[in-house]
Amino acid sequence: MYQFNYHSPKNIEEALNIYNTCEEPKFLAGGMTLIASMKQRLIAPSDLIDLRTISNLSEISLNNNIIRIGSLCSHDKISNNDIIKSNIVNMSKLASGIGDPAVRNMGTIGGSIANSDPAADWPAAVLALNSNIVTNNREINNKEVFTNMFETCLEENEIITEINFEIPEFFNYIKFPNPASRYAIVGVAIAKYENKVSVAISGASHTPFIAKELSEALTMNFSDNIPLNTISSDELNEDIHASSEYRANLIDVLTKKVLKTY
């Protein structure tokens, strides 16, 4: 690991002021990917700006039909929160299935979204559910956030402050995990609102995405009698963990499995 300066701001304004005066700064949330990358000398930030001391970024609240989750809420906190368990219970289960206990205690929802790992679990939930990302500058529609592998539409000095989720009629997420990392080889999230169903896929491509044909079919008929092979294997990843054809089949299998929980 290369040498760096460490900062612990008390609020977002202080964090931004520090960021603007540093040469190659990075914001630190849970650090599950950032610190590992630094240890392997893949990146070398001049300064780490630790956001974890900003207390109002770790709150969960319910306002009408919207659940607001602070960006620094850990996966463990979300999995055990009564508001989440009472309103979107399978979001709680999603959080409890991330990584191992160390990752769940340190990793944050905001850090996962900003990192934009295509095999992570939160991006699929963010895409499937009616949601938006709130930053220090603006509100971002969920469909605009993830732009490429490990890339988002966030500006360099933009900090995610909270994620807002509209409570659905139905939501579930099931993944076929890598047995070592617990990342999704393929994950399928399905959210149903009164007049719309969205199916979001993680792990299968270079970025999480909405399966449009599946979403449209389930909007018309919400049952496990789904059209098969709607996603071409040519559009999917192929690596040491699974072929593109295997991932295409997993999408169908996991979609049916999610629907059987309705």
Write the layout of secondary structure elements.
Elements: E1 5-7, H1 12-21, E2 25-28, H2 34-39, E3 47-50, E4 60-63, E5 66-70, H3 75-80, H4 82-87, H5 89-96, H6 101-106, H7 109-115, H8 122-128, E6 131-135, E7 139-141, H9 142-145, E8 146-148, E9 151-152, E10 160-166, E11 170-177, E12 184-193, E13 196-202, E14 209-210, H10 212-220, H11 244-259
Parallel strand pairs: 1-3, 2-3
Antiparallel strand pairs: 4-5, 5-10, 6-7, 6-10, 8-9, 11-12, 12-13, 13-14
Task: Assign the CATH architecture of the largest domain.
Answer: 2-Layer Sandwich
Which parts are unreliable, with pLDDT below 50 for 5 consecutive residues or more? none
Question: Which range does the strand content fall in?
Answer: 25-35%
Helix amount, in percent?
25-40%
Q: Please, what is the oligomeric state?
A: single chain
Q: At the third CATH level, what is the topology name of the largest domain?
A: Uridine Diphospho-n-acetylenolpyruvylglucosamine Reductase, domain 3
By CATH reckoning, the class of the largest domain would read Alpha Beta
Cα radius of gyration in angstroms: 18 Å
Description:
- 32% of the residues lie in helices and 26% in strands.
- With 262 residues, it is an alpha+beta fold.
- The chain has 2 domains: 46 residues, Uridine Diphospho-n-acetylenolpyruvylglucosamine Reductase, domain 2 (2-Layer Sandwich); 205 residues, Uridine Diphospho-n-acetylenolpyruvylglucosamine Reductase, domain 3.
- It has 11 helices and 14 strands.
- The model has no long low-confidence stretch (mean pLDDT 96).
- The longest helix is centred in the last third of the chain and has 16 residues.
